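User: Teach me something about this protein's shape.
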Amino acid sequence: MRHFLVLALLIVPVFSQKAPFTPDVLWRIARISEPQISPDGNTVAFTVGQPDIDKNTTIRHIWTVPVSGGTPVQVTREGTQNTRPRWSMDSKAIYFVSNRGGSSQLWSMNPDGSSSKQITNLSTEADGVSVSPDGKLLLFTSEVFPDCPDEACNAKRIKDEESNKMKARVYTSLLYRHWNQWSGKRRKHLFVVANEGGTPRDITPGLAFDVPTFSLGGPDDYVFSPDSKEVAYVANTDTDQSLSTNSDIFVVPVTGGDAKRINIGMGAERSPLFSPDGKYLLCRSQSRAGYESDQWRLVSIDRASGRINVLTEALDRNVNSFTVSPDSSRIFLTAEDRGRSVIQMMPIGGGGARAVVTGAAHMDDVQFAPDGKYLLCRSQSRAGYESDQWRLVSIDRASGRINVLTEALDRNVNSFTVSP
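Assistant: First, the predicted structure itself:
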């Protein structure tokens, strides 16, 4: 069994010259997100967003960098939105979402960006791609009309809406708008498609509610099981969406069929994640109904017995991102404390948590290389400073060596110290 060093992660900004932190400087900072380690453990793919003030948008492209450190390389150039990099199981291809063809669709490419290939061509578009553990299937979301049985029906309905000269909206219930998007008649469903393309299959047909793409502060809201035979996802099926926070976890076969609801309580459940051995399904859970700001706890469900165990009952902090070690023995999680977010470790069966990576920083998106040799996370150097730049950091588990993988994208010079 590997041993973990307790590391103190300190990122100290050192400016070559003193200058005011103006809005122009803020807009020049690269937005780093969506890191994914390749299955061979050698490379990290991630998304970099660069604000374009003149066009009032953020341009997003995919980059790669060696896990052991090196110079990041931009691998996408076409389109303005290239996101969600996900590796093939042999590490020889990257699946991603791009608008390079005029709409948001799934694409694949070589790790250097060459030989790009469009996989989907849906009128309802595609987003949020994930790859099954056996590498054969892609899971994604698409906003469809719930009563439409196929692509032809969706395409016709969209064409009819676009050609209709009457653009007024009539709402008889909440919610009618969320952030910058109107809520129309379409709903976000889950689809699977072969990794080489083909006809996508809706595995949530008729669902009158949205399947969220991601969970703020935690893992995705849908995930493949380790044997690639099932998908766990989140949905709130209460009639009054404006008052309810009661989202539940559902498990459905990848071939489609009846979904099994896992109801933990009257509060929200988000971020389902299977342990690598398939014995547990973990998620974040809130206990109080209708209380959006309730504390997020970490919960495990024993798949054989159905037993539910609240793992962080003694932790008076929100659980944000989390992952499970490759041997399924331990959970690594981040929890915010006094403006800082550190990485903690606990047994998968429950017990006390202890900090394994600490410091004056905010850490998130914790994940392992498949061989367990590296721990990867995103980190902000200035604790409590919401607009600070995110950096990708890898930690060698054997030596405790820390690498800032995206230092070439920084506007600051950074240094690290490791505790004895």
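Now, about its shape. The longest strand covers residues 43-52. Confidence is low (pLDDT under 50) at residues 10-17, 411-420. If you'd like, I can walk through any region in more detail.
User: That's plenty for now, thanks!
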